[in-house]
Automatic annotation (TrEMBL), chain A:
<keyword id="KW-0479">Metal-binding</keyword>
<dbReference type="InterPro" id="IPR001841">
    <property type="entry name" value="Znf_RING"/>
</dbReference>
<dbReference type="Pfam" id="PF21235">
    <property type="entry name" value="UBA_ARI1"/>
</dbReference>
<keyword id="KW-0808">Transferase</keyword>
<feature type="domain" description="RING-type">
    <location>
        <begin position="127"/>
        <end position="341"/>
    </location>
</feature>
<keyword id="KW-0863">Zinc-finger</keyword>
<dbReference type="Pfam" id="PF19422">
    <property type="entry name" value="Ariadne"/>
</dbReference>
<keyword id="KW-0833">Ubl conjugation pathway</keyword>
<feature type="compositionally biased region" description="Acidic residues">
    <location>
        <begin position="1"/>
        <end position="32"/>
    </location>
</feature>
From TrEMBL, chain B:
<comment type="similarity">
    <text>Belongs to the ubiquitin-conjugating enzyme family.</text>
</comment>
<dbReference type="GO" id="GO:0061631">
    <property type="term" value="F:ubiquitin conjugating enzyme activity"/>
</dbReference>
<dbReference type="Pfam" id="PF00179">
    <property type="entry name" value="UQ_con"/>
</dbReference>
<dbReference type="InterPro" id="IPR023313">
    <property type="entry name" value="UBQ-conjugating_AS"/>
</dbReference>
<protein>
    <recommendedName>
        <fullName>E2 ubiquitin-conjugating enzyme</fullName>
        <ecNumber>2.3.2.23</ecNumber>
    </recommendedName>
</protein>
<keyword id="KW-0067">ATP-binding</keyword>
<dbReference type="InterPro" id="IPR000608">
    <property type="entry name" value="UBC"/>
</dbReference>
<feature type="active site" description="Glycyl thioester intermediate">
    <location>
        <position position="86"/>
    </location>
</feature>
<keyword id="KW-0808">Transferase</keyword>
Length: 505, 149
């Protein structure tokens, strides 16, 4: 059994705990799905996997400076001017070079850069000068001017930069203080005038605009994570693929929309579904529980008291609340319905049933979706408890730290599968009924049953956990395998366009 | 708190060399708060009207623009019912080199050249586009009703 050999292998190397820890987290990165692939020489790429890499802040900065170096050599500009141009062109190097070759003068003007003036910033004291901003006119007032020669006092410049960077979050489009002047305050001037704190913010903003401008980059949305994901999936591919990535901080998310992992459901459907749930779910639940439709005009009616003789406010149709048949057939048996099987009543209930069916259908999917969401939250609590359990198990059964890792793995797989299951219901809601859908639902059912089985094992008391170790590892492997199968077939279907949806997205 | 030199200078100049058709007088108890009146430009539907505005210089002035609002009711696509003004130099295009006087001139110019393509009062802008003579007539009526004493 491959799982056992894994374990043997790991426990064999357990003398060096620290190394194991890093190794182990490498294993986790592959979501445990790799256990099965380990048998192959090389793990095959699944249809739902995308190529991506995780970049640190330093790497982002390096990528920028590499591109700046390249452009400054090609276009024979100072690195600073090259950087300003690149930022102006939203880091589209090709477009910049092409347009610069076309008309360098126009490009420079457009970007607020002037090559003729000297770039040297001089702090000068000008006798008789009055700063237009603060109206100070001391003779030893320090003043500066950009190439455009609009001169202001250093103090005002510093305040201005502080305000732009700190309050407005502006970094690349800070212009000369003169309102008609389009000359940009160059980075070296900013470096020179700002306090380290503001400069730090300035560099953050530069990185931020870089990541925003590049289509293949996206910040990891996890709190306090400063990594960037580099992935080549473009927005118009999002109908065919759900680009799920995992940051080195451990956060799984969708590269396409930035929200939490929502495989196998494509971003467009996720948006539609969430909107629908926001608008409808509670209302629909209430309507379903408390109302019926008028058999004639289908208006929704709440019976809030009184007898079963209903008169629709809208169309004045009189009917019986119990059998939904027309009231006049009840003759004199007021307040009491013994005519349930009458044909007219059955027909009326049929129509009612049809209009209810779509609502019920939605609720079917919504309730399961919500249920998995809830279970997922509970499983997260469980995960926190898992760690405790692992320590307890170690002392109770004399197992080593590495030997109880199967609990951790199982818990992670469980959470992930809940997340996937949740979204399979949103996905299924929008599917046309055909044989592919049936297969999908079978896969969904298999995964669901496996997940519930594993979840159940988890709730066993600690003293039994040691005995079911093998069973648990088997189930873990099985569950993650079911998930891989489900995601793989769904992703293939998306790529080949074989799914038929009830909506456009 | 001492008033910055810039504000003192600006106020002095507003009094010493007033802009034609524009008046701005600071409150005695708050020198950052101005009562403003602007005469409707000739050749515009606001001709003959005197429009009252309030102007406040915030703490960060001149790093942030002054806050200005019409007090007199006015029918204009870029001014809403609360008197708020949609003008680029009051927002993104503000520069510390601009002054109270230049801003008030811009507002006067806005009265002479309404811009229904960048509306604040949508209903007015809509009418301005679909029935310009009618909109101008209404603006003239409002000027007569609200802006003449």
């Amino acid at each position: 059994m491959s799982e056992m050999s894994d374990d043997d292998f790991l426990s064999g190397g357990s003398e060096e705990d620290f190394n194991d820890e890093s190794m182990d987290s490498d294993f986790e990165e592959e979501d445990g799905t790799q256990y099965l692939d380990d048998k192959d020489d090389r793990p095959q790429k699944k249809a739902y996997e995308v190529d991506y890499s995780v970049l640190s802040e330093e790497q982002i900065e390096k990528a920028q400076s590499d591109m700046i170096d390249e452009v400054h050599i090609i276009l024979d500009l100072t690195p600073e001017n090259a950087a300003m141009l690149l930022r102006h062109f939203k880091w589209n190097k090709e477009r910049l070079i092409e347009q610069y070759m076309d008309s360098s003068q126009r490009v420079l003007e457009y970007a607020g850069i002037d090559l003729s003036g000297s770039n040297k910033l001089e702090v000068k004291k000008v006798p008789g000068f009055m700063c237009d901003i603060c109206c100070e006119d001391d003779d030893d007032l320090e003043t500066i001017a950009l190439r455009c020669n609009h001169r202001y006092c250093t103090n005002c410049y510093q305040q201005y930069l502080f305000y732009k960077i700190r309050e407005e979050g502006e970094a690349i489009m800070i212009q000369c203080l003169n309102h008609k002047c389009k000359v940009l305050v160059d980075p070296s001037t900013i470096e020179r005038l700002c306090t380290p704190e503001i400069l730090h913010r300035y560099h953050e903003l530069l990185n931020r605009t870089y990541v925003q401008d590049k289509q293949n980059l996206r910040w990891c949305p996890a709190p306090n994570c400063e990594n960037v994901i580099d992935c080549g999936v473009t927005p118009n591919q999002l109908q065919e693929i759900v680009p799920t990535v995992m940051c080195s901080c451990g956060h799984h998310f969708c590269f396409g929309c930035g929200s939490n992992d929502h495989q196998p459901c494509p971003c467009g459907l996720v948006r539609k579904w969430l909107k629908k749930c926001e608008d409808d779910s509670e209302t629909a639940n209430w309507i379903s529980a408390n109302t019926k439709e008028c058999p004639k005009c289908q208006s929704t009616i709440e019976k809030n008291g009184g007898c079963n003789h209903m008169t629709c406010r809208k169309c004045k149709h009189e009917f019986c609340w119990v059998c939904m048949g027309p009231w006049n057939e009840h003759g004199t048996s007021w307040y009491n319905c013994n005519r349930y099987e009458e044909k007219s009543g059955v027909d009326a209930r049929d129509i009612q049933a049809k209009s209810r069916a779509s609502l019920e259908r939605y609720l079917h999917y919504y309730n399961r979706y919500a249920n998995h969401e809830q279970s997922g939250k509970l499983d997260k609590d469980l995960y926190i408890k898992t760690e405790k359990k692992m320590t307890m198990l170690q002392s109770a059964s004399g197992m080593s730290w590495i030997e109880v890792q199967y609990l951790d793995a199982a818990s992670k797989v469980l959470q992930q599968c809940r997340q996937t299951l949740k979204w399979t219901y949103a996905f299924a809601f929008y599917l046309q009924r055909n044989h592919l859908t049936t297969i999908f639902e079978d896969n969904q059912k298999d995964l669901e049953m496996a997940v519930e089985g594993l979840s159940e094992l988890f709730e066993k008391p600690t003293d039994q956990l040691a005995n079911i170790k093998v069973e648990m590892m088997d189930k873990t492997a099985y569950v993650s395998n079911r998930r891989v199968i489900l995601l793989d077939t769904t992703a293939k279907g998306l790529q080949d366009g074989t799914w038929e949806f009830t909506v456009e997205f | 708190m001492a008033l910055p030199k810039r504000i003192i200078k600006e106020t002095e100049r507003l009094v010493a060399e007033p802009v034609p058709g524009i008046q701005a007088v600071p409150h005695e108890d708050n020198l950052r708060y101005f009562d403003v009146s602007i005469h409707g430009p000739t050749q515009s539907p606001y001709e003959g009207g005197v429009f009252k505005l309030e102007l406040f210089l915030p703490e960060d002035y001149p790093m942030t623009p002054p806050k200005i609002r019409f007090l007199t009711k006015i029918y204009h696509p870029n001014i809403d019912r609360l008197g708020r003004i949609c003008l680029d130099v009051l927002k993104a295009n503000w520069s510390p080199a601009l002054q109270i006087r230049t801003i008030l001139l811009s507002i006067q110019a806005l009265l002479g050249a309404p811009n229904p393509d960048d509306p604040l009062a949508n209903d007015v802008a809509q009418r301005w586009k679909e029935d310009e003579p009618g909109a101008i007539a209404t603006a003239r009526e409002w000027t007569q009703t609200y802006a003449t004493s």
